[in-house]
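This section describes the prediction task in plain terms. A model, or a person checking by hand, is given the sequence of a single protein chain and must write out its three-dimensional structure as a string of tokens. No templates, partner chains or ligands are provided. The sample shown here is typical of the held-out split.
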Amino acid sequence: MLSSILNLEALAAYDLTHVQYSIADPWGPTWALITLMPVFMLAVYFGVLLQRRELTYANALVGQFALIITGLTCYSRVYLMYHTLEQVYVGCSIGIAMGAMYYMLTERMPRRAKHDSLLMHFRKFLYTNYFARMLCLRDSWTVYPDGPIEIEYSQWLTNFQAWTKPPACTALQGSANAHLSLMLDALAQADLCIAVPTAFSVGCVIAADAAQMRNPSMDLDVIEALAPYSLFTGYSRELPGNTHAEECALEKLARYAASTPDAQSKLAREKSSKRTPLSLFMYTTMEPCSERLSGNAPCVDRIVRFNEARHVTSAAWLAKGTGLENSSCGALKPSMCDGSLRPITVVLVVQGVREPQDFVQCQGQRVLRGNGVDVISATPRALPATLGLKLPPLTSISMRVSEGINWLEDACLRMAKKGHKT
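The expected answer:
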């Protein structure tokens, strides 16, 4: 019926994937599929681009597609004897040079360009124009040094752990007021740092949860689910030897724990090993370092080694030596603290800001999570006054509190870079 209506002989076949191979060749179908790889690659790239909206993938597509076309062209030119091998080598060398220049202009230089440079202005326009906003185009590698995977995984893990915990547990919520309050205390510690142009100024606070410090024989239901109390503090270069904030706080804690009565007794340590460890929270204004140019042990290694050392002390001894007995500590009093010896372990690190790539590329979050330590970022959801938080009196910087910015992250970053050349 259709053939009677249409003149099939007058029609032309529209076929962009016409691939022929010998039926006798067992590898024929495989090579035929390989010839279609550019088509498959286009489909994959377009799918990823639509799903992720990352312009970096579009840039990679352009570069790789051009590379494949160049390779096919070179092969066909030699096969058809249009060019000699020497001419192809020269052409490939020119192509490599142009590809390297393309990469420098589109990727490396814009990421390292100054804010007032022409490349930076072009990059800002590329991501803020009407069409980019309409299509939600972005480049996560410009904002996150390690790409979007780490930050997205961090946010997912925080939400997932909070979802799997009982409703009363807020330890893994970076927006909890208890976390924000102690992060402000850590910021005040960073304010004590002597500013140097070749290192960051960071503050640290180590705290324990009141619910775990209390004597289990006492009925203290009035204690909130999350009520961390500051135990030891530290700030960059506080102790001799180019020390970091986390290093100083851990050193103070380890020394004090070693002075616990009976802590060195073998029998007491054996008994303590059977008890549930006292969980510690570490608040640091910047992500713990994973590499140090000085060659000293990075902070993530020190945290892991601290946990492996299984330092032993008691909540009552910690309360006695850290000023808890002389402070206003709500429902928890020193007499209510557990006097039994047990190990102490850092289970959670709350960071104010990720470490910039000014000196090294930090992998602190990944290393800590790989060793069983949770890492979250302090993320206030409102202004301090709304949250009932009191800002510390800082002398190094003035806090910029306004809608639309993470005022705590901004303060931690500017504090860390005090004394640096802008």
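For orientation: The mean pLDDT is 78.
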